[in-house]
Amino acid sequence: MARIWYVLLILFFIVGCSANSKKTTEDINQESDEINYEIYMDILKNEVKRDLKLTSSRNLVGYSAYMYDELEYDEESFNKIYDDGENGDVMPVAFVNHSEGVLVRKKHSGDNQVYNISLDSKKNKWIIEKSKFLESDLVITEEYLMKLYYKEVNES
User: Fold this and answer.
1) Helix, strand, coil % (nearest 5) of the chain?
2) Which among 104, 81, 84, 86 is positioned nearest to 94, based on CA atoms?
3) C-alpha 44: how far from chain center
4) DSSP run (H or E) holding 53
5) For 41-64, how does the pLDDT look when each residue is reduced to its tens digit (9 = 90+)?
């Protein structure tokens, strides 16, 4: 008999929890201060792109923006990018046009570590061809991005 009550209690818990989880993402966002990850990341990508345009002569028309972890890199390139990172740096953003691109690590000081990357078609992985350092005064912090985020959300 105790086993039946145990099973019923588990079923009640599962059914009760699943009934409460039917709220939509829109309902949750309206009820709390949760941020929309896609909007937030788009703002980050746009800020890095804007800064790169100001600090280099690279034309990024026709390039698509990706977060670093959305692309697959060969092991040597991954290690290089990982080793160049420091506490407070922004996650690298890649700008890709077909089989070439540029990866930008926005440093905590505001400067940019820029890697030219290309797609190795045999391995289907991105590799670093060369890198350069570009000075910049734009420091991107979470607070900075959140101000831009709330401005974007409130204007929509």
Assistant:
1) 45, 25, 30
2) 104
3) 7
4) helix 37-55
5) 999 999 999 999 999 988 899 999
